[in-house]
Amino acid sequence: MKKLKRTFFVVITLLVGYCLAFAFCLRALNAPVAVSVQAAKLSVVIDAGHGGVDGGVVGVSTKRKESDVNLAIAFMLKEKLADAGFLVVMTRTTEGGLYDTTAPGFKRRDMQKRKEICESANPLCVLSVHQNFYPSTASRGGQVFYRKDDEWSTRLAGNIQAELNTLYKGEGVKARKEMAGDYYMLRLTPPSVIVECGFLSNPKDDALLNSSAFCEKIADSIVVGLLATIKNTVNTVNVG
């Protein structure tokens, strides 16, 4: 009888141990991506487009400069990415540009400085924040540009685009498609995307992009798109 009890106790102990181990594995598999981000010390560069004498485009109704909208969203994005565990580097943190003087060639010097910051940070990716403008005031919504020869950039753009489409759908805007581009900020060593958050040439988009609440949602969309790309990349590696 004692032997039977001992055997029963051993079996129960093993079963409990197995269940605890199984539960721990499930918890690990379903852990937030942010935990992995923190552990890996992943960094991201946020590039707030334009600045200084180069204000970019101007809101058709608000007359607000694109450079100011870009910087506001960039700061929101920085806070959210830091909360998610990323190490964040910003190309600019003031209203000024990244040139030493406004002498001819300042734009080229500004872009070169941005590239230097992005390259030296050796980040997971670069998120360049911009606002769109089109002669027709009918165009609306966010659109993401990627480097066509970079698979990670392509996936990242697609995931962010999907989130922006969902956000703008609530404003009655038709979905847009991410596009390949040949812009300077897409020709970097790390994967990069340009996020055109909306059309300042459209009165409704212009008003939304002048709203802190909506800009927060823009930043959320970018973060969710980035985390989805990281998660999909990990799953692809594990399956492979």
Largest sheet composition: 6 strands, mixed
CATH level 3 topology of the largest domain: Aminopeptidase
Report the total helices: 7
* SS elements, strand count: 6
Residue ranges: pLDDT <50 for 5 or more in a row?
1-32
Taken together, the total number of domains comes to: 2
Shape: globular
Strand order of the largest sheet: 2-1-3-6-4-5
Residue share in helices? Answer: 40-55%
Gap from first CA to last CA? 52 Å
Percent strand: 5-15%
Q: Would you tell me the structural class of the helices and strands?
A: alpha/beta
Rg is: 23 Å
CATH architecture of the largest domain: 3-Layer(aba) Sandwich
Question: In CATH, what is the class of the largest domain?
Answer: Alpha Beta
Overall pLDDT confidence: 86
Task: Supply the key terms.
Aminopeptidase, 6-stranded mixed sheet, alpha/beta, 2 domains, single chain, 240 residues
How would you portray this structure in words?
By secondary structure, the protein is an alpha/beta fold. The protein is about 50% helix and about 15% strand. A 6-stranded mixed beta sheet has the order 2-1-3-6-4-5, sandwiched between helices. Strand 4 (about 145), helix 5 (about 150-170) and strand 5 (about 180) form a beta-alpha-beta unit. Helix 3 (about 65-85) packs across helix 7. The longest helix has 28 residues, at about 1-30. It is globular, with a radius of gyration of 23 Å. The relative contact order is 0.16.
